Amino acid sequence: MIILGIETSCDETSVAVLKDGKEVLSNIISSQVEIHREYGGVVPEIASRHHIRNIASILDEALLKANITLSDVDYIAVTYAPGLIGALLVGVSFAKGLALGKNIPLIPVHHLKGHIFANFLEQDVPLPNLALVVSGGHTNLVLIDEEYRFTNIGGTLDDAVGESLDKVARILDLGYPGGPVVDRLYYKGDRNFLPLPDPRVGKYEFSFSGLKTAVINYVHRAKSRGESFRIEDIAASYLGKVVDILVHKTLAAAKEYGVRGILIAGGVAANSLLRKELREKAEALGIPVSFPSIRLCMDNAAMIAAGAWYKLRAAGNEKEKIFASAELNGIATLPLERDL
Question: Cα–Cα distances in Å, from 8 out to 12, 62, 165?
Fold first, then answer.
C-alpha cells in the first residue's frame, strides 16, 4: 500500500511517500525557519505564500526520491486540522486537486495524531499508551487504547510549551526558534537560580503563561536596577521547571491509567532534557518511553501518511467512511475527539 502524505499546517512544507505503514520511501521537508527568524516567530501570511510557492516542487521531489509516479499512489493523506488556517488551506486544496484529478481516495488526518504516529514509524509501540504531545502550538496528554482510539485527558490552558520557550528566549535575546537554544544553555546554567511558582491548575492541565511572566518580570527588574545575571541561569531555571511539570504530570497519568508505555511527540520532543528526565524517571517505575528521531519530531508528511495508514487499519471493511469529499476544509482549532 502506497500513501502520499501532505503537511502544511504551519511553516514546514512537506510531502512524503509511505509504503505499508512503516517504510518511508521519501519524506521531503522544506522549512521556513530562516524566513521567519527576522520576525521572531511565524508570520501566517508569509507562511501561506511560501507553501503555495513550494508545494508542487516538493511533491515532484518526493515522488522522484521514492521512484514512483502518482499512478502508483493508493491513498492521499493531508493535514486538515489544527494549524494556521491559511497554511492548512494550501495543503488541503492541493491534496483535493490531486485526489480529484487522479481519482485517488483522500484521507484527512489530525495534526496531533500525526505527531503521535511518528513514533509508530520507527518502533513497535505497546498499547494502551500515553502520549505527551509537546510543540509550539500544543501541550496535551493523550491516551491511545488498543483500538487506536484517542482520548485527550489534559492540555494547556494558555501558552503551549514550545511557544513559552520561544517567548522566554526572546526576552533573553536568544533569537528564534528559542527552544533549541534554551536546551543547549541549560547545561551551562544553574536550574535552581530562579525559583519559579507551581501553576495551580487541574490534575492533568498545564499552564506556562505565569512561569513565562515571572521570568520576564525578573529580567525587566534586574535590568532596571542595573543588576547582572547569567542568561544560562535563567534558561536553566525555566527549562528545568517546565520539564519537572511535564514529567510529573505524565508519570502521574501513566500510573493512574495503567498504560504499557509513554511516548513523546511534537517538536519539543527533540528537547534533550525532557527526553533524558522522562526516560530515566519512567523506566525507574518500569514504564518504557519512546520518542521519534529528531527529524520526525518536526512537522513532516511521513507522520501524516502514518496517521492515514492506521486510520485505514482501524476502519477495516468500512474504509469509504473515512474518505474525504471535495467539501473538505481546513480547520484552525479542532479537539482530538472531534476528528473526522
Answer: 6, 15, 23
